[in-house]
Structures are given as C-alpha cells and as structure tokens.
Amino acid sequence: MTTTPHARTAAHVLDQVLDQAKAHPGPGTGGHLPVLAIAGGTASGKSTLAKALALHRPGTVALIHLDDFYVPAHDPHRGARTVSATGAETLDWNHPRSIDQDAAAAALQAAATSGQHRMAVVEGLFALSLPKIADHATWRIYVHTPDDIRLARKLMRKIEVQHQDPLVSLRNYLLSGRDRHAEHVAPSRHRADLVLDGTMPTADLLNAVDHLVGAHLPPTP
Predict the structure, then answer these.
(1) Which of 147, 92, 99 is nearest to 127 (CA)?
(2) Whole-model pTM?
(3) Is residue 67 a contact partner of residue 38, using CB atoms and an 8 Å limit?
(4) What sections of the chain are H helices per DSSP?
(5) Which residue in 81, 87, 125, 153 has the most C-beta neighbors within 10 A?
(6) Which residues are within 8 A (CB) of 171 and not within 5 positions of it... i.e. 6 or more apart?
(7) CA 114 to CA 219: how far, in whole Å?
(8) Bridge partners of 70?
C-alpha cells in the first residue's frame, strides 16, 4: 500500500456516488444489487482485475476502490498508527482500522440503489475482512500472488510510476508490511468462494469470474 495520501478523499468519493444515486434513482430503495468483493495483498492484481471487469462489462459494473476510503492520514485520532522506517509516525495503510468502513458501506449502498448497474465490485486489501463489506458480498474472490512477485511489482511501481526511492518501501515491508499482510489480509483467503492466481493472464481471470457470477451479468457485446 502506498504511503502517499490519496488524491480523492473518502468524503469526496461518497458525495459523487450519492449524487449519481439521486440523479438516477433506482426502482425503490430496497432493491438488491449483487456484490462481488475482491481482496488480495498489495500488488496481487486485484485492482487490475476489478478494472478489467468493469471494462469487460461496460456500463454494468459499479466499481468501488477501498483505497479511496482511508481515513485522513494527518488525523492522529482516527485509524491505526505506526512508525515508518523513516522514523515518522504515520497512518498504517496496511491495517483494516485505517479504512473508513462506514463511508465505504454507504457508497456501496448508494450504488445498490442507483438503478444504474447490474453488479457492484468492491476491491481492496480488506474487501473480505471488513464486516460491513464482506458480509454483504454475494461472491468473494481472493487474488493470491506469491510474496516475492507482489514485492517486485510494488517496487517497480514505486520506481516507474511514482518515481520514489524504493528503499523506504523495502524497509517498511520488513518492519511491518509483511506481518500486517499475514495478520489482516492472507487469512481472508479462507472466506473466498474463489481463489485466483494473480500471475495468470487477465483474460483467464475474467473467464473465471464469468463462471462465478453466471447469469447476473449480461453477455459481452
């Protein structure tokens, strides 16, 4: 999980979803929208799969990223705190308590009543760990990718995309990231209806998801 503040705050994302729901009300507030929850470790490929699913089924999927619902990093009274390898106190991005679970659940509820979609997809480290998300999921997927591949992907992203020194990430991984994954993310694999290999081609992963969700999505054009 990147330690830089996310550009969009949870409140901003929630406001956008609520505005869409008000502008396009569904057929009643009690309607049920199937929910697919996708979890996995950092750089496992869960976000890539979720985005590919939305592109694979254009206009039918409400996509919710739990990364958009971290509590404000500068607020010392919210979320879990930790000490970075730099020595500075910071939000623990690898702890489920750092997610504003109520805001994420409200966004999911707004998507469910918008009448715009056939399915909601919620992806994030803790999509199978947060009760207000996981307990409402129709299907649960865990994307498993070996730790060495996940770490390599993360470091490549730090260097190529974010242009950051990967040394701090390596130290944070050894300091707490590896243990947080083992404690809060990896155990959620046992809640999954389907475990996918995050090293497989995206097309193969999409086929596996299609078999899981079945008739709840319309055929691909």
Answers:
(1) 99
(2) 0.83
(3) no
(4) 10-23, 46-56, 101-112, 131-134, 147-160, 166-172, 178-180, 202-213
(5) 125
(6) 85
(7) 22
(8) 99
Q: What stretches of 41-146 show up as alpha helix (H) in DSSP?
A: 46-56, 101-112, 131-134
- Looking up tokens 């944070």 gives 172
The whole-angstrom distance between residue 187's C-alpha and the CA centroid of its chain comes to: 16
Region at 43 (left for phi over 0; alpha for psi -120 to 50; beta for the rest): left
Are 91 and 77 a contacting pair, CB within 8 Å? no
At 75-121, the pLDDT tens digits run 989 999 999 999 999 999 999 999 999 999 999 999 988 888 999 99
Pairing of strands 89-91, 81-83: antiparallel
Residue 70 near residue 6 (C-beta atoms within 8 A): yes
146 vs 11: CA distance, rounded Å: 34
- Identity at 114, one-letter amino acid code: S
d(CA 128, CA 136): 10
Helix (H) or strand (E) holding 194: strand 194-197
Chain centroid to CA 161: how far? 19
